[in-house]
Amino acid sequence: MQSKPLRIGTRGSALALAQAQETRARLMAAHGIDEDAFEIVVIKTSGDQIQDRPLSEVGGKGLFTKEIEEALLDGRIDLAVHSSKDMPTVLPEGLALTAFLPREDVRDAFISHKAKTLMDLPQNAVVGSSSLRRQAMIKRLRPDIEVVMYRGNVQTRLKKLAEGQVDATLLAYAGLKRLGLGDVVTSLLETDDFLPAVGQGAICIESREKDARTLELLAAIHDQETQVRLDAERAFLAVLDGSCRTPIGGLALVEGDRMTFKGTILKPDGSVVHDIAREGLAADALTLGRDAGEALKAIAGPNFLAS
């Protein structure tokens, strides 16, 4: 191993740190190297600093990656560990997603002290969520529910729930599991009713395209199936996603050499929804995702994404 530590850039939340530590542990195991060969560098992002309004109003997904990518480009870190669902579909020139870790459970978790499931909540219950996708899908299933903006890290959201600020909340099951908080889940929302965000449950690693040393280290921990699934999902998102103002869900599954893909777009109030399903060869993941996006765009019409 090189004498200089490999610097891993990450946001500072407990979940982001858990993901960086998992990446470090996998690199240590794959290469037989010690923990002191790594340095975890915490970088505060715009998305972490803005807590008083929805991110869709102030710039969307890139707010969780911009400062970290700047550190990669100017050489302050060697790789960045992200939640794939936070990644914009267009990356800065010279950077690439160069590894994916094996994907966790993609489902959304329902958490409440008042009901077993979303459908069991009392009439006009209040649910906290900062995700436009979750807000729209909740309203689609339960138009009576009031959904309120709910920012903060996992622990903050659970604290607000315990204090009774809301009747329930929804969080990614993968993140709860990575934090050792799987036991707080009241029930899980199956993907047939509640498609996850594109990339949900997948940790991705971003690095400089020409950094041969880092690329070689990352190759040993890369999970090819996760990449293929994310190729389809991100291609789908790229066609549809001008910003994160439109509620979008997408999920690719691989079995053998075959892939199935489901995608959805909704009005923010859940009143209109358009779904798409595609099947094909996993080797054609990019084309499959792109075609699904184009087909959904045609079904919804030009004004749907703009509104």
UniProtKB/TrEMBL annotation:
Family: Belongs to the HMBS family.
Protein name: Porphobilinogen deaminase
EC numbers, comma separated: 2.5.1.61
Catalytic reaction(s) noted: 4 porphobilinogen + H2O = hydroxymethylbilane + 4 NH4(+)
UniProt domain Porphobilinogen deaminase N-terminal: residue ranges: 6-215
Organism: Roseibium polysiphoniae
InterPro entries: HemC (IPR000860), Porphobilin_deaminase_cofac_BS (IPR022419), Porphobilin_deaminase_N (IPR022417), Porphobilinogen_deaminase_C (IPR022418), Porphobilinogen_deaminase_C_sf (IPR036803)
Cofactor: dipyrromethane
